[in-house]
Amino acid sequence: MLSYYSKLSAEVYDLDKYVGRSFGDVEYYQERLADCKGPVLEPGAGNGRLLIPLLEKGFDVDGLDVSTDMLDICRHHCEKRGLETNLFTGRMESFSLEKRYEAIIIPTGSFLLLHQREDAVRALENFQKHLNKDGRLLIDIFLQKDVSLHTVSTRSWETANDELITLETKLVEVDYVHQYSLSHHRYEKWKKGALLETELELFPLRWFGVEEFRLLLLQHGFKDITISADYQYGQYPTNTSEIITFEARV
């Protein structure tokens, strides 16, 4: 069974992608939502890296995530800043809320964790059901450039408690027919040479072609689609390293 963003993974995410850290997306989403008068939903809200800056700018944003560990971190950051929001545990393809939203945003490629195409389709249909008439979907994807099997990389982070967390990433499966890869992430927490915790995460990533994803949106009821590269609105992608943002209306 796939499991990601559990305790150690969530802790590393918060160290590496702390609240407010921007890859160009924080400013971009603030600008694109500037005329949004209604509520916004962020599925895959994680630790609140983007959600909290939006709240601080006065946007009405709710957060959704499959990981309770990530939401606990997000909740802590909100409380520390005196911010109030609604945080829900749920999956993109199956969450059900009574509330309808003016916009749904999914930055940084979180949507690609839905590595089965049918789950991605169900998620798009679910987003449409949760959007107001003429509501907008803004969603980032990226292209997978390196799919060399058994490639291993290692990173490490120091915590405030003088602990060391290491992450070994190994690509173990590439399915070219169904367009996804699967990596093993092995987290280990150390202190004074002693292993305190370890965690294995199975991390899937799907890939879409740019025009493939545009057609997928059209086939599932979205319209007025704009494609942007590296958070330059309306600039069509020209190379494989760019983050690609789709903006569409229902």
Automatic annotation (TrEMBL):
<dbReference type="Pfam" id="PF13649">
    <property type="entry name" value="Methyltransf_25"/>
</dbReference>
<keyword id="KW-0808">Transferase</keyword>
<protein>
    <submittedName>
        <fullName>Methyltransferase domain-containing protein</fullName>
    </submittedName>
</protein>
<dbReference type="InterPro" id="IPR029063">
    <property type="entry name" value="SAM-dependent_MTases_sf"/>
</dbReference>
<dbReference type="GO" id="GO:0032259">
    <property type="term" value="P:methylation"/>
</dbReference>
<keyword id="KW-0489">Methyltransferase</keyword>
<feature type="domain" description="Methyltransferase">
    <location>
        <begin position="40"/>
        <end position="135"/>
    </location>
</feature>
<dbReference type="GO" id="GO:0008168">
    <property type="term" value="F:methyltransferase activity"/>
</dbReference>
<dbReference type="InterPro" id="IPR041698">
    <property type="entry name" value="Methyltransf_25"/>
</dbReference>
